[in-house]
Design brief:
Number of helices: 9
Helix content: 25-40%
Strand order of the largest sheet: 3-8-7-6-4-5
Distance between the termini: 16 Å
Number of domains: 1
Structural class: alpha/beta
Order of helices and strands: EEEHHEHEHEHEHEHHH
CATH topology: Rossmann fold
């Protein structure tokens, strides 16, 4: 992490975006899973990523400090983003703002065009024509498209997630010069037996098997910097409160539904993802 105890508190301007339903876990801190002698137990099943797959998860946060300084300028010069999100998705933007206040030159926020919408709920693909309209505009130079969930992954179905994955894949085929970023849903406190875990695993496994780019929203929220896994955490990021009570953490004016540190680490994971796309081998 670039933030140190000697750094001044960071106050980022909140982005005003429409809200969405609160996660099912409320604001109660969930207990972390115990660590067994051979590592963390009760981890999601993994699919070995094929060549081309870039999975930005909690490990991306840990690797943030390794990104070469020159890569940040490269990203800003080469990528223009179209991002559809509502409140939960704004956490990435808040995290980027927090980092830019920390170092306004190195971490200056890339060029984003944001639209106040999200991936909706079961089988909703209304975001597809919005994407097509923006990409088809005269003079459009977007080459990265991102859409986030805002609760719609928690109550989704296998068929609904398939509709999402197929729609993203179809857009990739129609716009081969554009990078499409897949996302998992935010945590909701439903735990190992919850529907969200199954739906996120469905997205995660498909992206890994098909060489896609995934911003793993749910996984990023589920691990603290010490590598402790929280399977029952909700979107308020209860472990963030405990972590920041014992460690120096950056502040912000608002992180939608959550703790400022949850936004901060999403900003770090975003930069790692883009660094990999820009050719950094990590």
């Amino acid at each position: 992490m670039k933030y140190t105890a000697a750094s001044s508190l960071i106050l980022a301007v909140a982005i005003l975006v429409p809200g969405c339903g609160e996660g099912g876990g409320g604001s109660t801190r969930d207990a972390s899973v115990d660590q067994a002698a051979d590592g963390i137990v009760d981890l999601p099943a993994e699919t070995t990523p094929v060549d081309g797959a870039i999975l930005a998860d909690h490990a991306a946060v840990a690797a943030f400090d390794s990104i070469p300084a020159s890569t940040f300028d490269q990203i800003r010069s080469n990528y223009r983003f179209f991002y559809g999100h509502t409140s939960h998705g704004s956490q990435i933007m808040t995290g980027l703002d927090m980092l830019s206040v920390e170092d306004s030159t190195l971490y200056a926020v890339p060029d984003f065009d944001e639209v106040s919408d999200d991936l909706g709920h079961t089988g909703d693909v209304s975001w597809v024509p919005i994407t097509e309209e923006r990409l088809d505009e005269a003079g459009s130079d977007y080459n990265v498209v991102m859409w986030s969930w805002c609760g719609g992954c928690s109550d989704n179905t296998e068929e609904g997630i398939d509709a999402y994955l197929n729609a993203m894949s179809d857009l990739e085929a129609a716009y081969p010069g554009v990078l499409f970023i897949y996302m998992t849903g935010h945590t909701d406190g439903s735990g190992a037996d919850g529907n969200l875990r199954a739906r996120n695993a469905q997205i995660r496994s498909w992206c890994a098997a098909n060489g896609k780019i995934l911003f793993d929203f749910g996984d990023i929220e589920s691990w603290d910097p010490d590598g402790v896994y929280y399977p029952d955490i909700s979107d308020d990021c209860g472990w963030c409160t405990d972590w920041c009570a014992a460690h120096a953490c950056p502040d912000c004016s608002s992180c939608a539904h959550s703790h400022c540190y949850n936004c901060y680490i999403k900003g770090e994971a975003f930069w790692w993802m883009m660094a990999r796309l820009a050719g950094w081998e990590g």
